């Protein structure tokens, strides 16, 4: 079964717009990565200041391959060139035990 990687990024509320813009203008290569299954970008609609980037992968090896790829480096070049939008982040990792889709 799949794995889910969640990048939990603390973003000051006044920079939520910039955070969303950076993702909208990213390289978009993750969708082409071996073993990639899905991507979601979540912004809180309550008082939290943690945005979530969820990706689902066929396996841990596929995710690690993405992290080591040139496309990953290209997709994160804004972070290196313009500095981070967030003030901190951590990666959470989960095994998918059950998945139901409407489709």
Write the layout of secondary structure elements.
Blueprint: E1 3-10, H1 16-24, E2 36-42, E3 50-57, H2 60-67, H3 70-75, H4 77-82, E4 88-95
Antiparallel strand pairs: 1-3, 1-4, 2-3
Q: What would your notes on this structure say?
A:
There is one protein chain. With 103 residues, the protein is of the alpha+beta class. It has one domain: 2-Layer Sandwich (Alpha-Beta Plaits). The chain is built from 4 helices and 4 strands. It has a 4-stranded antiparallel sheet with strand order 2-3-1-4. A hairpin with a 7-residue loop joins strand 2 and strand 3 (50-57). The protein starts with a strand and ends in an 8-residue tail after the last strand. The mean pLDDT is 90.
List descriptors.
single chain; 4 strands; 4-stranded antiparallel beta sheet; 103 residues; 28% helix; Alpha-Beta Plaits; 4 helices; alpha+beta
Low-confidence stretches: none
Q: Any idea what the CATH architecture is? A: 2-Layer Sandwich
The neighbouring-strand order within the major sheet is 2-3-1-4
What is the CATH third-level topology name? Alpha-Beta Plaits
Number of DSSP E strands: 4
